């Protein structure tokens, strides 16, 4: 048996012993009393009775053990040119200081703090300070519009919001504060205070007494630095909202103990990163990839993490990532395939790589969307390092399938994120819940219990957790992805089976875009489908039937709808194409045939079910839908 097969088998055959062993990588104030608590199955709890502090594990313990001067966080802005290195001691000092401010403002363990910030060190400081005082942070991605922020504020009910005056998005300066104001004007819940980090590129007009300037809070001596709150392993560390099948975003809850143990394990087993080594994750702290592999995991193991503000291309060129790798001697890099496609488009021969010394780079990890074989081959050839596809989701918080480089370098198969990660019992089921034969498509599921670090519940709604993920197939977690296992046990992920789409690595719901379109007074009915796109992986397209008697020109309605989605969901939704059509294809029971339309748009024949109400409707749409139309 190889090292992977042995480790995987042990993780499933004796879960408790396996995870008890991994828990030794974390410092506990009180060791867990039970490794796995199944009393409330299908909701499981890991490390019940254990007491710890995630910030202590990420910062204090490294300082105590002699790594005070090691770089913890390196801020690299490709936009302003700024570089700033925080050693473990400096980051701890900043975080403890901000934690002191949180306590002064009345934040207590369990209170929620929404963080709506661009990629600046202060955002990481705010996250870690929440962890330090036991508050539950909920970071909202900056590309979301006020309405999305408002719905998260209403769901999380934060006592405090931490934000910034602006974000720098390529050449654009995005004013965050007006968006925060607009969100608060829409939300029923109001925080007691908003702390605003003022950036010199665009200062915000603070609304006193609600708004508090970030900078004075950080002056030495302004507050008693916060010590680490002792929290339960099963207490929430953060809530991260993600798109579901309905318009209402789901607040994925991450626990304290399971999260710390799982992330530390993943750094050793998957990413092969240890103390003092440098990890560069080019994502955003607003996504799970940023939470896990920009902020928590590298710090939990005493590594150095790069916080990169910029784009893969255009800030200023397609060598921006390579510059980071060379300047900071990056060992492991992680990004989304979209970013590599964007670089390849501008620099197809990889000529810009030659100007940068990338001998430190050992592995490129890619995730967030399907890795197409072309991009895989290009990156491998140009970078001359292994390119590792791995598959996971906001819900799981760390990889479900990967090539575990720290355990064994398994052969890589293009198109597959390799094998199930130890702890995840991956199975592929048919509609009746039976395992499908090897090589056959089905719903990819994980047999319960899920390993530590995966979602504890949906914020404030255990029933939504159970109904949304755990009841379709008894005893299994439904990933929402379809695919198959091959004869060697490699996982092949073929795409979502629900209405979640992935646009440039950003997870979005076509259902919520439809809800926005339907709110327009001229719209009778509509459908949004995700269609294949060379650069962004997928792009949304809208098809709209206008109400009888509306005489506004179709182009005008389409433009209004594009603007509406941008205003309500955000620029990241990237819904740019809307066609006004005479009718949408439906079954006789009235279900819109989105799958048929999606297939036609992707250049496939587009199977028409026998239950279709009027086959002519599909034929009318074909010329509009097909690729290149
Ligand atoms: N704050 C505000 N606006 C944002 C934003 C943020 N944090 N992130 C993106 N946007 C805006 C963009 O400016 C753009 O606006 P525009 O329509 O006015 O041009 C819009 O949202 C769409 O953004 P994006 O999909 O990122 O497209 P792009 O053309 O700006 O960039 C890529 C394309 C491929 C370079 C970029 O998507 C990318 O780097 N992708 C990798 C994504 C990633 O790392 N995902 C995390 C999962 S691992
Ligand atoms: P998110 O919750 O934003 O991380 O998005 C998770 C979804 O992205 C998954 O359910 C998949 O549909 C998709 N995804 C992530 N990684 C991969 C991958 N390596 N291959 C294919 N799809 C992926």
From TrEMBL:
Protein name: Propionyl-CoA synthetase
AMP-dependent synthetase/ligase domain residues: 66-448
Protein origin, superkingdom: Bacteria
SUPFAM superfamilies: Acetyl-CoA synthetase-like
Domain AMP-binding enzyme C-terminal: 513-591
Stretches that traverse the bilayer: none
Species, as recorded: Microlunatus ginsengisoli
Domain Acetyl-coenzyme A synthetase N-terminal: 4-58
Similarity-based family: Belongs to the ATP-dependent AMP-binding enzyme family.
